[in-house]
Amino acid sequence: MKNTGLHHISVLSSDAERAYYFYHHILGLKLILKTVNQDDPNMYHLFFGDETGRAGTEFTVFEMKGTRETSFGTNSIERTMFLVRSEASIRFWENRLTDFNVCHYGVETYNGQKILRFEDEDGQKLGFVYRNTEIGKMDPFVAEDIPEEHAILGIGDVYLRVRYTEPTQEIIEKNYGFKKYGEIMWNDYKVSMFKFENNPFKHEIHIIEDKKSRLQYLGTGGIHHIAFGVEDVKDLEELQKKLNEKNVQSSGIVNREFIISSYFREPNYNLFETATPLSKGKETFPEQGREFHEIPLFLPEFLEKRREEIERNVNFKFSK
Fold it and tell me: I want to staple 229 with a disulfide (CB 3.0 to 4.6 A). Which of 4, 28, 133, 160 is the partner?
């Protein structure tokens, strides 16, 4: 398999319009796609990323109105850490989040470097991290009020909290090419750290082993799934063969029109997706900096015939 590291993170929000304002106008992420969940087209699905929407930068939001909030627990994908260029960028974001009254925990030291943890209005656990080593070529979206040197570059780290480290470790090492590089203790929990070296972001996964906490209840403010990238559908077919040989229940290969994916649950019951690169070019992305109601709704071809029904169900209002 030709792995490419992390592809995207998908989270649950109680309000798509509010999430759009937070991730686009406050965090400065580029809106790649305003669409609906293909498995349940009664909810919005927003895609954010860098200038070209490449794998490794994508962060997606499902709207789930009327759903209870996530309750803390183990066997969860716990936190997304966005990658920035430097410690100076961490300080910039500390000030910006304060200016926008965003909940944050101040600059902390973790694993020998500075990080900044914060939350959106749903309590979604987020953060900023930078690399002490050289990173590859970046192409961030540059918002008007965020200096380019401090713009979000993509996904940096993802934290998992699980009862048993080894089964999840085996999956990310054997299936996805991550390599363990260290262990630390953090708040009395063992954290095993893994890195993917063969992409510009040097993506990391940190597995917190937590056998004490109850299981997480996943709701709004939680992470729905983590997606790993592969180069093409042949890699998906290879993964599917491995899963079938081990009797792992999966979705099989699913064509989403703009990506092709496969889904399964790893042994600690977290949902893992494997996905090909986004097939939509930047020329198809919406105009940036607009209000939510000014952005048209994209529907895949198989849902286009249901547009009127879907727009009514998601309360879509479009005004140029």
Answer: 4
Q: How far apart are CA 75 and CA 128, in angstroms?
A: 23
192-222 b/e with 16+ CB inside 10 Å = b? bbbbbeebbbbbbbbbbbbeeeeebebbbbb
- The answer to whether residues 3 and 229 touch, using CB atoms and an 8 Å cutoff, is yes
pLDDT digits (tens, 9 = 90+) for 116-153: 999 999 999 999 999 988 888 999 999 999 999 999 99
Statement: 3-284 belongs to CATH 3.40.50.2300: no
Q: Return d(Cα 213, Cα 163) in angstroms, integer.
A: 9
φ and ψ of 314, to 5 deg: -95, 5
SS3 242: helix
**Cβ-proximal residues to 186 (8 Å cutoff; 6+ apart), any chain:** 110, 208
- Helical (H) or strand (E) element with 79: strand 76-83
Conformational region of residue 274, where left means phi above 0, alpha means psi within -120 to 50, and beta covers everything else = beta
Alpha helices in 69-222 (DSSP H): 87-99, 165-174
Sequence ranges of the domains in the chain: 3-284
pLDDT tens, residue by residue, 149-182: 999 999 999 999 999 999 999 999 999 999 999 9
- CA–CA separation, 86 vs 132, rounded Å? 8
Helix (H, G, I), strand (E, B) or coil at 11: strand
- Edge-to-edge strands, sheet with 104-110: 104-110, 113-119, 125-129, 76-83, 154-162, 204-209, 189-195, 179-186
For residue 132, how many other CB atoms are within 10 A of its CB? 9
